[in-house]
């Protein structure tokens, strides 16, 4: 307690404020206290290696992760018994005997096999500095412009500094320890791990070797090794009791290399020790300044593509946790911009070409058994991780998700055949490092054969932003094979003869109040996903000149899919029958997939559905878990209500789990390190809000590039550059008093750029391009042709007032930039 009080008093000195004021315009998370727990530590990563930096002067702690350290080993969780009950379930569902079907499914559909493996921690590196408990003028930060964590403090008139980063170039983590006087660096380096492991020293290295845990019947098979090399400049270093002790060095550089035996989801024949040693041997040959410079250069080629300026206030001179605490009252626009860019930082740091996709916690996890196993939950969360990838100019970082889709399209063939007797491939609501595809976690969330379908939507989305036909050609077989599965398993429901998926669920929600009854047929989200998958695959086939007969079959099937329906409460129905409850506050809003991330519902093309969908969101309410609020930010942006979207951002930027605020918020909020508090931590809330802020400033899903479609009143002035619109247009906008003052469009692919402008945002007399007429010739704006909805006789439609806007056409040439001043 005394140490905490000492830091609290001395850490607020003039020195810290001077440091902050020198960097007002930079993007930093900074604090006047070391991290007291994991939710205050700061994340660094290079896509593969991650660490949480605690910054304690007396005992630095780096909690370590490597992306392939998972429990168990290669396996599939499908069994021959998994699908035996499906015919019986379909019969009961179509007879309306839902509770009976649910009870049978609970017993028969989930044989005793695993629910997926667990993403796990490697352990911790500690650097012990005796006597440094009395440090003063303490300061730590995470500079997200450089992907660099820094700690500074003073002790006995000496200034100490630590710089820590996970090198994108050298594939090791590097810690640089310095002081402003020679001979002052003394510490002991050690490692610990909760895994089955052993430690040794030798050849100048501290080595931790281990194997991951057994889990749900699967024996731990991932062998990992962490190798630490300490290079002091001056002084002495000795090995002692599996530690390295450095005394009186002028400075020191610590390198951390981690590797595993994992090569592919079905191949763990790698040599963890040799791989870790190889990374380390190359890294230590490079001097520190060069390593840091190359790391920053690599990182900034991604990060600097997008810049957002919403203005500065005196709040930038306050520690980040204090800014979060006061956000709702302070109108700290710079914090919103920081939060947006922090999401981009996290994606760059947890998802690189050639790595695994970001998990439920990115690459940062300190447990052997984390919440929800920290795996890939693909009924919203994994998809949400990649919502910012295209629009915020990080398209290459989508690659790990695409590679996982390739794997799943192989492993999912067995599940399609064994469980459903179908061709093609399928996966349910969860997968892991070993690409399991069977249902997990019981019927309530797990009996949902649409996870692969939703992931597949990202393939067409990538094409719309990039126009990369070679990519589309390479991944077309995955889309086609997914379609083949659904063509085989669709069932004709008795009332309207629509083709539906049965059995299924609307992810994690129920329709019998007080009971966990979820099993159903033809849920609205399923129908929307089918419509998108079939429509996009058909369009891809047309562009590639492939499969004429198959495309005809898709067209015929699309006509028989269930339309979206408007129920008695004027809501968009979540289920095939009108079962929605106005008091249902469930965190999932699955039936609103058609609004976002899809584009099936539009104020211009489907006004009745637009009104009903908005009514559904109003009924569902604002309070939610972190990721759910991230989704709702995007939804309110699509509903063109910037003030409501901003209100959700304000709700999300509530400080939880902090020494500054002891209020226990149930659902949503932000930890002091700006990570999403589900609670507990899930990274999708960060990614969802980053995508949502982009969606407030630019939309391109509805046949036009819509500028500032959901600008909140509090962001009356600002500028954004580098956002990407479908069709390959890079957009920069400046605005003042909510009116656009400058617009810049870089056309990467050429073609017509249809611009949509709110009439209040611009002086129409200064528009120099043609007013849009007819269909947009740019094929990247492919919009769904949705059938007219079925409307319940009890429904009373309320027309939503939307901003008046005008579309204008700008013909462009690939590679040219067009600038307009207003």
From TrEMBL:
Residues 699-769 form the Alpha fucosidase A-like C-terminal domain. Pfam families: Glyco_hyd_65N_2, Glyco_hydro_95_C, Glyco_hydro_95_cat. Keywords: Hydrolase, Signal. Residues 287-697 form the Glycosyl hydrolase family 95 catalytic domain. Residues 1-20 form the signal peptide. Residues 29-264 form the Glycosyl hydrolase family 95 N-terminal domain. Transmembrane segments: none annotated. It comes from the Bacteria. InterPro entries: 6-hairpin_glycosidase_sf, 6hp_glycosidase-like_sf, AFCA-like_C, Alpha-L-fucosidase, GH95_cat, GH95_N_dom, Glyco_hydro_b. This is Glycoside hydrolase family 95 protein. It comes from Pedobacter albus.
